[in-house]
Amino acid sequence: MSGCCSHDNCSSQAKAVDSPAWRRALWVALGVNASMFVAEIAAGAAAGSASLQADALDFLGDAANYAISIGVAGLGLAWRARAALLKGWALLALGLWVLGSTAWHAYAGTLPQAEVMGIVGVLALIANAGVALMLFRFRQGDANMRSVWICSRNDAIGNIAVVAAAAGVFGTGTGYPDLVVAAIMAFLGISGGWQIIRQAQTELRFDARAALRP
Questions:
Q1: In the chain, count of helices (H) and strands (E)?
Q2: Which of 115, 121, 124, 203 is the most exposed place for a label (fewest CB within 10 A)?
Q3: Residues 6 or more apart from 107 whose CB is under 8 A from it?
Q4: What pLDDT, in 10s, does the model give residues 157-201?
Q5: For the whole model, what pTM was predicted?
Q6: How many CB atoms lie within 10 A of CB 47?
């Protein structure tokens, strides 16, 4: 799996994580995600949409993740793996928070505004698809690079689901499609966080073994 590397592969990864292209990609991704968080959190609150609010919080989490990745770019494998481990736990916690928020909206019987959901969902999809395409070539790097790719991929999938939820809310006149999509996004966050945690732990064990070698 990615992160279980030979000396040659680790050397190439080390060059990749400190490359100007990687840093530029992270800065662009950070700017896009921070901007979309502000837009979506306002729209989600105005529209009463659980899926939009979940997606907005995901944007915030990703912006923080990109900032961490910029901070550890060029550092040793152990530091990058620790950063990835932190991001993995944060993503998992975010998924659990979204599940709780979804349950609250279901209890409150909230009916979101489908039109706002659709417009904002399409804008978010365009933003995330662009970021995901930009980061696609870095998807096979170490746990830290892979965590960035997984976050971007999950965001794009989530945006497609938000647009589908908007159509469902419009067609049925109920909030159930919004709740279903929010639950799916929570699952994506939990499963993605767990993938990142497992790879980061593998890399930390690899680094510890390498440190013991004469």
A1: 7, 0
A2: 115
A3: none
A4: 878 888 998 999 989 888 888 888 888 878 877 887 888 888 888
A5: 0.64
A6: 26
